[in-house]
């Protein structure tokens, strides 16, 4: 085998298509990068109606709970991508759900004015699928969240109610203004702090020990959801109706630390990654975006 030198002539006149060829190569490389960076893994099918709320299991990464508009709650196994269990929990919408910090049970609230506590394990053979506790409230509850260390949970609706798991009436009711409150969240670090967003454009922070509201910030448009940073106790991010997300430091509420832009419609939900470095947001523009906490645009 004789290797002969191939004569190359680098005269640009003899290579008229160099730029288009390079452009095509670059484009293909970018497309392949996109193909290999597949974020979508699979879908969990089975609900007969729209999914209205979700909850994560605090101990098991592969367990996710979802509640639908027909009152049905499903528990999913993410590794198998299968529904493990289905519960007909409420009449009408399931408005909110949260898991207990130990992971043994979870709570749901619905349009039927009830708060129900359910076992996380499936019932034994021959057992009925029934809640452990049912609390009948006076008004419709729009959201619920559980304390991170104690047997206490909070519901929101016309006001924020703090409940002891053993009692059928709230320990205390917190209110500031008279508008309906759409979501409530306990702080994972400073566990007696909780934040809520109301439909009169307010974000109100409460302290459970003082049983009075702490601070309030009023934005130009309504906040749909908020989420506390799991690593920095005083930082939370609010998903707003004006297409942006605002990250606040609760000690300096005069102006947000960061405004996160990129959505082109109302932002409906937000949740932090466990590292506290990034969060994910879901919007009415049918897109899900991942934002670094310190950047104004999504990655």
Automatic annotation (TrEMBL):
WD repeats: 44-86, 260-299
SUPFAM superfamilies to which the protein is assigned, alphabetical: WD40 repeat-like
Alphabetical keyword list: Repeat, WD repeat
The organism's place on the tree of life at top rank: Eukaryota
InterPro entries, per database record: WD40/YVTN_repeat-like_dom_sf, WD40_repeat_CS, WD40_repeat_dom_sf, WD40_rpt, WD_repeat_DCAF13/WDSOF1
Gene Ontology biological process terms in this record: maturation of SSU-rRNA from tricistronic rRNA transcript (SSU-rRNA, 5.8S rRNA, LSU-rRNA)
Gene3D superfamilies per record: YVTN repeat-like/Quinoprotein amine dehydrogenase
Any one of the GO CC terms: small-subunit processome
Alphabetized PROSITE patterns for the sequence: WD_REPEATS_1, WD_REPEATS_2, WD_REPEATS_REGION
Protein name according to UniProt: DCA13 factor
Organism: Hemiprocne comata
Gene name tied to this protein: Dcaf13_0
């Amino acid at each position: 085998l004789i290797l002969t030198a191939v004569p190359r002539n680098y005269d640009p006149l003899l290579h008229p298509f160099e730029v288009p060829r390079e452009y095509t190569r670059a484009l293909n490389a970018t497309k392949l990068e996109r193909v290999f960076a597949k974020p979508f893994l699979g879908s969990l099918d089975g609900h007969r109606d729209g999914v209205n709320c979700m909850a994560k299991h605090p101990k098991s990464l592969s367990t996710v709970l979802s509640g639908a508009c027909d009152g049905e709650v499903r528990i999913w196994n993410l590794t198998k991508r299968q529904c493990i269990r289905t519960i007909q929990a409420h009449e009408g919408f399931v408005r909110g759900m949260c898991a207990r910090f130990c992971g043994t049970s979870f709570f749901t609230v619905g349009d039927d004015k009830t708060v129900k506590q359910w076992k996380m394990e499936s019932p034994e053979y021959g057992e009925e699928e029934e809640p452990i506790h049912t609390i009948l409230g006076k008004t419709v509850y729009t959201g619920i969240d559980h304390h991170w260390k104690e047997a206490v949970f909070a519901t929101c609706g016309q006001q924020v109610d703090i409940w002891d798991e053993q009692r059928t009436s709230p320990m205390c009711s917190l209110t500031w203004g008279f508008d309906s409150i759409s979501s409530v969240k306990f702080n994972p670090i400073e566990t007696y702090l909780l934040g809520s967003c109301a439909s009169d454009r307010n974000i109100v922070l409460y302290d459970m020990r003082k049983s009075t509201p702490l601070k309030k910030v009023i934005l130009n448009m309504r906040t749909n959801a908020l989420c506390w940073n799991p690593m920095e106790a005083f930082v939370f991010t609010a998903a707003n109706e004006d297409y942006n997300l605002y990250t606040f430091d609760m000690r300096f509420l005069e102006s947000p630390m960061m405004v996160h832009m990129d959505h082109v419609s109302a932002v409906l939900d937000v949740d932090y990654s466990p590292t506290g470095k990034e969060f994910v947001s879901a919007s009415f523009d049918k897109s899900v975006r991942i934002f670094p906490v310190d950047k104004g645009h999504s990655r």
